[in-house]
Amino acid sequence: MRERPRGSGRRPTPEPPEPPPAIEVAVRYLGTRPRTRWEVDRRLRRAGVDVGEIEAVLDRLTQLGYLDDASFARWWGEQRDRHGPRGRRMIEAELRQHGVPREVVEAYREEHATPERRAEDAGLPSSEDERARDALERHLRGRPLPEDRKARQRIGMYLMRRGFDADVVRSALRVAGAEAGDEVP
Known about the structure:
Strand content: under 5%
Order of helices and strands: HHHHHHHHH
Radius of gyration: 26 Å
Largest sheet: none
Helix content: 55-70%
Structural class: mainly alpha
Number of domains: 3
Oligomer: single chain
């Protein structure tokens, strides 16, 4: 039997597929959760899309309503209220980390300074004090507030790391202590 010369029966390696259009990359990225304009811009830059094309894609997605930093800020704050209450300072810092412009963060702050809530937000905390009490309750997970002063200080520091002001933390600890039947300084 004759041997075939090497390489004679092989297929040529196929060309790699063309990279998907920039809009497709952006839409796929937006498919998992809402994103900010800055996040989509970074994703497209990582994909090697031209700067001019990035601007066109971002503008088109904004026109279609897929990119809106103000609605992202509302969504982010709502997710925090539902799943992991944070203080106003922490939420604003997280929004800045996601590239939300300063004026949008300020508008978000103004919007949440009013006690008016939408019907779908009925179960969410409406004030900083309520958020702190909710975070404290979740942290304790049904356990009573400890009587030890050091343990209460640690819990207070936990709440402060989550973005709550010292006055709000003291108030939340005072309310939790009053509900437990003891006096909190």
